[in-house]
């Protein structure tokens, strides 16, 4: 299985709730994975509905050139973003990656990225991607999934006013938990993201609970440098100073 070296992100925010659009057939050389996710929880909708105000297209790529080409094709890949109130897209390069996810191989989850680059300066903006997954089948206890979801919702609420945080969203792909759900957060600086991840509060409490109560079968955590960005998110571009 070929691992990725870069990721691309397309995000859109709509003024009215809608369903997610579809992606055209993958014709991009070097694109290993791409899927549309919806922030259904923030729209008070069930994950399977794919109805939301905010959407994300995650792409995983074999090299930087592939990720850049995919970003250049945004209008072709997501023409339905033309109706959005705001869009933001970026090419990301991981500098820390741990855990397993089923994006590259549904039957055999594993790491997503083959290598990482040196960490950025503490003052540099970064993006953080986390995923969670379960082994599907008759033996899956859905109470574990529900308890994890309850904790994740609490973390999202607790993040209001977090220093350095630009935005945080959680996305479900079609099929609810068939493809590992993800969270995506943008940070004004790497130091703030690290402080939140390891500092006291609901997030650390839920991380301990996840491990102690075995609420998921796999997780992954990726911090990324933002190599290129286009558009705005919540009125700003993280690569530009306030």
How would you explain this protein's 3D organization?
By secondary structure, the protein is α+β, with helices and mostly antiparallel strands. The protein has helices spanning 64-72, 74-77, 142-158, 190-198, 202-212, and strands spanning 6-19, 31-38, 51-61, 86-99, 126-133, 165-171, 182-187, 218-231. It has one domain (6-231): Alpha-Beta Plaits (2-Layer Sandwich). Helices cover 21% and strands 34% of the residues. The protein has an eight-stranded antiparallel beta sheet with strand order 2-3-1-4-8-5-7-6. α3 (142-158) packs antiparallel against α5. It is globular, with a radius of gyration of 17 Å.
Q: How many domains is the backbone divided into?
A: 1
The largest β sheet comes out as: 8 strands, antiparallel
In which order are the strands of the major sheet placed?
2-3-1-4-8-5-7-6
Structural class: alpha+beta
Query: What is the 3D form?
Result: globular
Query: Kindly state the mean pLDDT as a whole number?
Result: 91
Say what oligomer this is: single chain
CATH topology: Alpha-Beta Plaits
Runs with pLDDT <50, length 5+? Answer: none
Distance between the termini: 41 Å
Helix content: 10-25%
- Helical segment tally? 5
Number of strands: 8
SSE run? EEEHHEEHEEHHE
- CATH architectural arrangement: 2-Layer Sandwich
Rg: 17 Å
Strand content: 25-35%
CATH class: Alpha Beta
